[in-house]
Amino acid sequence: MHYTLSTATKTSLASAPEVQDQILGSLEMLFGTPQNPSYLRTKDWADAEFDPNHAELAADAGGTGELAESEMNGVKADNLVRFRSQLEQVARRDYAGLAEFKSAPHLSDRVAAIVADKELAEDKRQADLKALFENYYPSLRDSTELYRQQCLHCHGVEGGGDGPTAGSVEHPFLDPRPRDYRLGKFKFTAVKDKARPRRQDLYRVLDQGVYGTAMPSFRRFSAAERWGLVDYVRMLAIRGEVEHDLVITFQDDEHLTAEAPLAAFQDVWTKWQAAKEKVVVFEGDVPAPTPAMLKRGDELFHDAKKGNCASCHGDMGLGDGPAAYKLDDQGHRVPAYTDDWGNPILPRNLVQGLYRGGRRPIDVYRRIYAGINGGPMPGIGESKDADGKLVLPPEDMWALVHYVRSLSERDEAVAGGPIHGMTPPGEGGGGGN
Amino acid sequence: MRILLTLLFLALLVLGVWTFTDAHNHAWWLPPNVSSYGGDIDRLFYLILWMVGFFFVLTEGLLVWCVFNFGRKRTTKADFTHGHHKLELVWTAVPGLLLLVITFTQMQTWAKVKFKSNFPDVKPICEVWASQFDWRMRYPGDDGKFGTVDDIENPFEFVVPVNEPILFNLRSRDVIHSFFVPYLRLKQDAMPGMVIPVWFQVEKEGSYDLVCAELCGWGHYKMAGRLKVVSRAAYDAWLKKSKEEMNSNGSEDKS
């Protein structure tokens, strides 16, 4: 298994194979190989004793300090469950078979090293092993292995969304297709201005899944493993962005300097760090829906100067609005938009009640406020009219959110009702089988 | 050759019996039962296992004996026989009778687990939605109704209180799935378009595997969930916390 360049890169640089090799070499220098992935520590970082490979360590302890205390506590709590039998073994100093983790080769190595170290006093050995399991946080190498087992079959080796179970470009197996990380764009985040996702946004996707797609929840893995996957996915995304930037640089300048890869890397890294400042938060309590609000939301949904939602999502919210479709050469109705990955895209059918980015009111609020990065859904939370006033002041935003969410209740009345004489219990059901 | 074949079939007999008697020592056996009706189902399982075990030993023993006894090089001409009426009657009537015994002994258990008229008189705690390829539990919000905007949706984890009868509605979004919790001895298919009520009662707190037991597509093997059984107080606290998270204004995401 090894990292390759994307099809887009190979196509754009078809006439310059030596530049392809240069880019591939630079990427390997910056991000390592799948067998040993790690970020290059730039001179500045080494001087500042900062290591991007350690998200779990605090900034003053040589890491990036990206795990909040509550998140670290969650990691430790899950570790106690995950390593329960190992910790019991350590407690009775039985170290047989302790270093066999099929999805964590680096952890296996670390455990084996402590067990085999003859210099260690027995008490110290026991304490070291206990601490290792209790505070375990996966290295990029461990996460690569888990990624290889759980994610690669859809998302591909480089995160191009081109794994075997994704199908081919001509015959995709999945709709929507798995995310291609390499543009650095992720749809379901809590940030605005098309910023990069925060690590917490990616974690939430792993935790909740993306309902209505083939992306399931990965809660069966411990918090440490999921945070590790987030770190690795981020690395693949940054790697893809650097690759893309280098191609653009070459096309603009007709050559690549030796400094270009590092400059691109630092540039992309900074962009990912900037996302923290872009979180969409509503100051105050989420208002409860009232009939007046829903009525107001209905108006905004259909008003072309306000929400203008109906133009794409349709009068009934079925995702069949006129702007979402166009006629092709043969006069067939086809999707009018493609997303940033080049796939045709249709507006969400809001009546189904399947919210890919989460079904909490704040999730829908964020979709309307900031739009969906990579897709045609615009964000209107900060749009202003000719007089400089917000098109949708907060009370109107919530009216729209609650109206959109209420659309799915209709579906229950139509599609979720009793079928074939089956009556759900507690609603006048009962009787024989 | 005769001795070799005899030994081969004898080895099969011994291996077959040993597999079942030694299974406990290798975690090949059933996981511990934690549900209120799992004991009944286990008793039925053992009843049938003893029956087929007895006949396995009997028929396999007969086979070994036949190979040993009649496997010699033929010296006499074979007899023609039309059959043995009484023997045939016996080997038809006895299994028939045994099937009847199984039918009548299992009826009570089946009725207890699957008949709607025997369901506990409680409101469904949640809807369990199966879809390619995950489990999602939808708990009603304060209005107590499913399919309204205040529902709480919990992927992967099916949280229930211990020692209480639990009723839930099983539903599918796309294809046929099957809700299977081996620790409960409970399996029920989920059909798209149908609302299927299912009940159980767990007597021990803990986390138990929930898997899909109906091949539902390429990701079938990944379709796992977890039944999390907690005390009533912990359940109430979890539900309260989930409701609060539902009304979050996003401030927890601020760094």
Question: How do the strands and helices of this protein lay out in sequence?
Answer:
The complex is a heterodimer of chains A (433) and B (255).
Chain A: H1 7-12, H2 17-31, H3 43-47, H4 69-82, H5 84-91, H6 105-116, H7 122-134, H8 140-150, H9 152-155, H10 199-208, H11 223-253, H12 260-274, H13 291-302, H14 310-313, E1 325-327, E2 333-335, E3 337-338, E4 344-345, H15 361-370, H16 394-415
Antiparallel strand pairs in A: 1-2, 3-4
Chain B: H1 2-22, H2 38-70, H3 85-114, E1 126-131, E2 134-139, E3 152-155, E4 157-161, E5 165-172, E6 177-181, E7 186-190, E8 196-201, E9 206-212, E10 224-230, H4 232-246
Parallel strand pairs in B: 1-5, 4-10
Antiparallel strand pairs in B: 1-2, 2-3, 5-8, 6-7, 6-9, 9-10
Helix pairs in contact in B: 1-2, 2-3
Characterization of the model:
The complex is a heterodimer of chains A (433) and B (255). With 433 residues, chain A is mostly helical. Chain A is 44% helix and 2% strand. In chain A, the strands form two sheets. A two-stranded antiparallel ribbon of chain A has the order 1-2. In chain A, strands 3-4 form a two-stranded antiparallel ribbon. In chain A, helix 10 (199-208) packs across helix 11 (223-253), helix 11 (223-253) crosses helix 12 (260-274) and helix 15 crosses helix 16 (394-415). Chain B is 39% helix and 23% strand. Chain B has helices at residues 2-22, 38-70, 85-114, 232-246; strands spanning 126-131, 134-139, 152-155, 157-161, 165-172, 177-181, 186-190, 196-201, 206-212, 224-230. Chain B is elongated. Chains A and B meet through helix 10, helix 15 and helix 16 of A and loops of B.
